[in-house]
Request: fold
Amino acid sequence: MAVRTKRKKTPRDQAGFRLFLLSLPFLVGIFVFSYLPLTGWVYSFFNYKPGKALLDCEFVGWKWFIAPFSNPVLRGQFARVMSNTLGINLLYMATMIFPMFFAMFLMEIPFTGYRKLVQTLTTIPNFISWVLAYAAFFALFSTEGLLNNLLVGANLLKTPVNFLMNADHMWLKMLAYHLWKGLGWGAIIYISAITSIDQEIYEAVAIDGAGRFQKMWYITMPHLMPTFFVMLILQIGNIINNGIDQYLVFSNAMTQDAIEVLDLYVYRYGLQQGNISYATAVGMWKSLVSVILVLIGNNLSKKIRGSSIF
Amino acid sequence: MALKSRGKEKELESRMVRKLTVGDHLVNAFIMFIFGLFMIACIFPFYYIFINTISDNSLVITGRINLLPRGIHFSNYTKVLTLKELPHATFISVMRTLLGTLFTLICASFPAYCFSRQEYWHRTIFYRFVIITMYFSAGVIPIFLTYRMLHIYDNFLVYILPCCVTPFNLILVKTYIESLPASLEESAEIDGAGYIVRFTSIVIPLCKPILATIAVFSAVGQWNNWMDTVLYTKDKRLQSLQYVLYRYLKEANTLAEIARENPEAMAETDPSTLLSPLTVKYTVCIVTIVPVLLVYPFFQRYFVKGMMIGAVKG
Reply:
């Protein structure tokens, strides 16, 4: 393509155009499902009421974009939602080193069979949906769950308590659920990185008298740090991105305020309460900030990868 | 010590100079114990749910099945699967998994093949057009509005058609195709085979490993996906198993509804097999998780590979 100049159409060009036509249905699909929804952003400039045609609705300009900062009620909500979003995500980021330690200590176990077993069983939670994950915690902590059975059986509790309805330390609980689901899976990339470390290095330091923890600290960890930093930086793009599932399943009348994150807020306002225009505007703020963060993360990662891996 | 665990066990063991001290054994035991606890935390909830579905229902409802099943019976499963909405929800789950995976594979592989050909018309521009979709999203509400406009809101197709946007999978397949020796395809090209013939008879068979990886991941993703049911459907007949389970867990009154709609399943005189709301929840949970666990050992060998390809691609 680079050498393409204004000459007559060659058979090669024709073949290239045929390829384009063959993949055209797919390109149309991409357009419809990724680009066309962008036109939905115009709804945020109107006072849209479901059931009416958009053009019959009042044009309000930037009103909905300013609303989360100017309207006192919305400002309160927005501040709470943003603090939940950032708080929970910063906790996730702070614990991103855990999978690395998981992998390092797992590889210390001298029995291959046991190691495989741990790896297999701890990865399972990653492959189930949040509904099933919730079912697991429901079985443990709900009024009819295991914990209540045991506590009531031992006379420590008179009447069963639904622990899932308790909003104390909600961020930490979300972190715990998140780690339960993702720790084993997150470790896989570090495990394969450890297996690719040259064994001779360990032999060399063993001769120098290095013990187990010295090997971990001076050899294994420095080898894993580049991977860790890349993962950390890529996470920057997701810092206001939570997804809805995890928060939707764990939210109820009591916990709602403590775990309502940005995505869930948009869903509630837009699809449940029908305030399409406001929800779209908040979603656009989110998209905008996300794209900027992704770009920052990508640039940082290029720099880090360029300088520290080789 | 660390040496031992890192592959080539046998060989290294014979070369070990230092003997294991008591301290080493203690540290090993401690590490294994901690991992054992986490392993149990990952798997025990499902074991607990399972023993509660096969135990005497009168003991389950009074909370006396904690570690071992008692009074084993399987009537919960036969009954739950005849409840009005469950066979249909299972059908929806299976169909969206099969069709969604197939569609994902087609949309990841054929365009990837097209883009792997240098002669593609304005290749760079169109390739960027596809790849750039990884970095932005219009957001939930505009997507919802678009689906409504396209009339796939509240339609089974909403589970399938959006799968055509798989830029990441497309990159994986394209990279894979480009790593294949070009001579294989050239010989067919000289024989006069067109693009479609070359794609189906040469490229696809060679791409089996990467396509298998994608198929497995997208199948699990489809089976597990319930957010699209929440966001983009209203019709009860489009609810998958995951969503039905979600409703059972979250909405207290749905179980009263089940009892009203299925009087025969709830009309049982023997308390040991009488369905209670709790046993219905637990049983549906096991029914929903079993397919994932069944394919899990089979696809475990794919995920390191899948993840590594992703990491190399960057």
Summary: The longest helix of chain B spans residues 277-313. Chain B touches chain A through 101 residues (CB under 8 Å).
